[in-house]
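Our preliminary data section would be incomplete without showing what the modeling component actually yields. Below, a chain of 675 amino acids is followed by its predicted structure, encoded as tokens that our downstream tools consume directly.
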Amino acid sequence: MKILGISGGLELPHEEGFTSLNLKTDTIHDSAAVLIVDGQVVAAYEEERLNRIKHSGKFPVQAIRRCLEIGGIRLDEVDRIIFYCAESHLKFETIGHRQRYRDYPYTDPKAFLAELLGRYFQVGLSKDQVVLEDHHHCHAASAYYMSGFDEALIVTIDGASPEGNAGLILSAKGGSLKSLGSISNGDSVGSFYDVVIEFLGYTTHDEYKVMGLAPYGNPATFRRLFKKAFTLLPEGKYRLNQGWYYVLMESFEPRLKGEPFTQEHKDIAAALQETLEIVVMHILEHYQQATGHKKLCMAGGVAHNCTMNGKILYAGLFDEVFIQPAAHDAGNALGGALIASRKVAPQVQTETLRHLYWGTAIQSEDGVLQTLQQWERFVSYRKTDHVVEDAAKLIAGGAVIGWVQGRSEFGPRALGNRSILADPRPAENKRIINSMVKKREGYRPFAPSILEEYVADYYVLPQTKAPYSYMNFVLKTQEDKQELLGAVTHVDGTARIQTVSRETNEKYWRLIDEFRKLTDVPVLLNTSFNNNAEPIVDSIEDAIVSFLTTNINTLIIGDYIIDKKPVSKEEFLHFVPRRPDSSELKMAIGYTAEGYTHKAYEIRLHFRDKYKTALSEEVFKLLEQSDGKKTVAELLELTGSGTKAEVDIIDEIIDLWSLRLISLRPYESVAVATV
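Predicted structure:
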């Protein structure tokens, strides 16, 4: 039985303005597709890994295609297609002039989805193949059916859902789920968290940054103020004070993005984190006592708050806790597919989650070599028969490396197959990597990957059991190890750990073990392989591009060790630029303060205003003529350089490339692709 789960919006890559799910378009995020065959996950992808737009909410056409390729099937061979929204809340609207993108007469959502998918993938689909499932039931199923538990309390919490719930509480037994309560969108602690972080210069999807800032603050400073934001009620219920937002506005001057953090900002973050933990623990304490369940499953975006998850473990309310690692909306594609799989073939049991390596594997050694040859202007490389040993020596010697092996991970964490790795000991490494690779705030911590055999020697394990393989929990570092692990120990003596098993990722396990033999430390600093503007890399070419646009010392793909060549800017004339399908060039005509006509140019992506930047007129014209075949040199000859120097045009193109607003490929790779 073949089941395809889908989450995300309904806009195709080139579209903007088509809304659905009773929500604003920009609140739809983290599109994904998951393929389950006979109860087992065969492939899973977030759309962002393929269209290279963080948190992309586009209809996951590339993710669907990749899952089908991995599964070796066509779309019309799928028995059920599951979409993560209840049918009663899936509505179609168009906005103003953008109606030209869609002119469908459908009032039946299933018929609409069948037609959309069938037309895009050029197959015939029936609406009877399409199933729509409640948003939070998908969250719940993604956690429970992957946990391996028979009986459990299930709690899902996120920002909002089209059905009106920001959370559900359920009791599970023997594969059946019984609803115990819900959290309305109006009382969403996820949305509350988002509102407060705006005062700290952040926005949606930056929650983890504030979680990392909180340990620098004192929650007691603003505890009384934050207690006015909520009221705890009997039976695990609570209410948020909807007018408290105005109290916050009167109490603080918002921090503007880029401004330094004051102690007040840190104290706000600490009080916010404490408030979240108080409310969630209030829910868990009541329902644990009411149900007697000793096992807990959680999903929904709030379940990505690793600090909160660690507090749940140390509280000792449950014997076991399972947090679904892709707890955000991408995980609903998984949950929806699991629900359908259980319904269609109840006799087929889902395997307990063992790993998340569900993406595409890197190519064979010949395939890696072929790609590297196309980038020979920019990189040198050599193949080694001892890649694990050589990589361990590089890291022990102080190098920061990109490590690309095997199948890519599903979810928001790099778990050793698409990772940036470094020595976890020097505290200075945290600052170095934050500035040279991530280009992000220096306070933010990095995660340790530790061999599972040594975890109790380095971290204080709570009595409550949990899988530590997915960076879901913040644990206390043993006091005698905190100074030793300076780069991966946070200011409060904690770490968001990942244990590594030889059974599930032998090559990564061996790398850490080789580092242990050299240093007597069975730990590596592990962070996702990407810069601050892009999702985690997926393909070999993604890795090369990220390597070239960051200051990573060495890149290792398969058995190849890769270094950068010094190149002149003239080499970039041989690149072929291409705009993403989801981009648009814009020209606006306005006036200067003196009353003169002024033209402004920009490139933007169809997902949130932060994915845009201003252009010079010369680069605007060059990109206007780009077709994915002509080189920069050819486009300059076609459009002319105007008043801007050629070297400045190249600099601007490189900046756009670093921001992932355009792609650049060597002419050689384009020529190979078109043969």
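Residues 94-101 have pLDDT under 50 and may be disordered. The chain has four domains: 2-84+87-132, 139-328, 365-564, 572-674. Preliminary results of this kind motivate Aim 1 of the renewal.
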